[in-house]
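RECORD TYPE: inverse folding
INPUT: C-alpha cells
STRUCTURE:
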C-alpha cells in the first residue's frame, strides 16, 4: 500500500486504539493485505509494533483472516457476520445466499450481491464457480459504483438529478479505457441501462472481465441492492445468444430475491 502517512485526528471522545483498528480494517477491505508491515504502518500512521498487535487481535476475533494464497490478510467472516446481523440489509443477507449460489452454479460465472454506500458499492456476497478465471473481489470490498454493474444497476433506478447530487465533487477514476470516467459518461451509461433493463460492462473495472447486473427491490419497490455475474468475454458471447440467456437467468434470480423481500412487480 502506498501513499502519505495518515495523521491521527483526535477528539475529546475518540479512542485512538479503536481508531487505528478501524483504519486498518478499512484498508484491508479496500485491498491492503498488510503483508509488508513497515509499509502498511507508514501508510496508515500506525507504529509497527502496534500494527502487529492489532492484526493479531483482529485475527483472533475473526475480523480478519490470512489470505488463502498465503500473502497477507483479508476481511474475515466474523466481521462480515456482525455487519450483516446489525445492518438494515439483514433480511437481504439472510435470504440471498441460496439465490446467489444457484446463480453461480447455473451460469458457471462468478455471482455477487452488493449494496450502495454513498458513491461506492459494498460487496456483501460472492459465489464462485470452479473455474480458473473466477472473481477475486472479496466480500466487504468497496468499489466505486460507476465502475461496477452492481452500482449502475441500482443507480439506473434513480432520478438523474439524484445521481448528479450523489457524485457532486467525486473524482472519477479510469480503471480501464472503458470506465465511465465522468458524470456525463455515467449518466449516458445509466440511460442505456434503463432502456435495456440490465446493466452491462465490457471491461469497465478490470480488463477482460465482462459483467451483467440488475437491481433487487424491497417491499416498497426501492432498489436496495443488486446482483451481478462476471466472466470472460467468451462466457458472454459464445454462442451468440449466450448474453441473452445469462440476462434472463440473472433477471429471474433478482425477481426471486425481490419477491422474498416482499416486492412483486406489477403485471401489465
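DESIGNED SEQUENCE:
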Amino acid at each position: 500500500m502506498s501513499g502519505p502517512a495518515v495523521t491521527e485526528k483526535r477528539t475529546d471522545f475518540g479512542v485512538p486504539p479503536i481508531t487505528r483498528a478501524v483504519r486498518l480494517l478499512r484498508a484491508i477491505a479496500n485491498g491492503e493485505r498488510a503483508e509488508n508491515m513497515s509499509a502498511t504502518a507508514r501508510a496508515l500512521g500506525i507504529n509497527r509494533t502496534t500494527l502487529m498487535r492489532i492484526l493479531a487481535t483482529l485475527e483472533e476475533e475473526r475480523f480478519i483472516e490470512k489470505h488463502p494464497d498465503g500473502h497477507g490478510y483479508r476481511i474475515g467472516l466474523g466481521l462480515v457476520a456482525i455487519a450483516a446481523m446489525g445492518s438494515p440489509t439483514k433480511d437481504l443477507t439472510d435470504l440471498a445466499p441460496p439465490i446467489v449460489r444457484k446463480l453461480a452454479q447455473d451460469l458457471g460465472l462468478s455471482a455477487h450481491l452488493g449494496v450502495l454506500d454513498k458513491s461506492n458499492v459494498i460487496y456483501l456476497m460472492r459465489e464462485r464457480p470452479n473455474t480458473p478465471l473466477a472473481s477475486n473481489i472479496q466480500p466487504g470490498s468497496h468499489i466505486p459504483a460507476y465502475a461496477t454493474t452492481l452500482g449502475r444497476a441500482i443507480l439506473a433506478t434513480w432520478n438523474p438529478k439524484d445521481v448528479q447530487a450523489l457524485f457532486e465533487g467525486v473524482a472519477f477514476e479510469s480503471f480501464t479505457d472503458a470506465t465511465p470516467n465522468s458524470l456525463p459518461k455515467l449518466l449516458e451509461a445509466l440511460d442505456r441501462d434503463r432502456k435495456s433493463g440490465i446493466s452491462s460492462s465490457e471491461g469497465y473495472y478490470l480488463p477482460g472481465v465482462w459483467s451483467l447486473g440488475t437491481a433487487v427491490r424491497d417491499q416498497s419497490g426501492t432498489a436496495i441492492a443488486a446482483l451481478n455475474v462476471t466472466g470472460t468475454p467468451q462466457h458472454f458471447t459464445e454462442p451468440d445468444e449466450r448474453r441473452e440467456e445469462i440476462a434472463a437467468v440473472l433477471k429471474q434470480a433478482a425477481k426471486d430475491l425481490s419477491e422474498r423481500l416482499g416486492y412483486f412487480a406489477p403485471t401489465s
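NOTES: The chain is about 45% helix and 15% strand.
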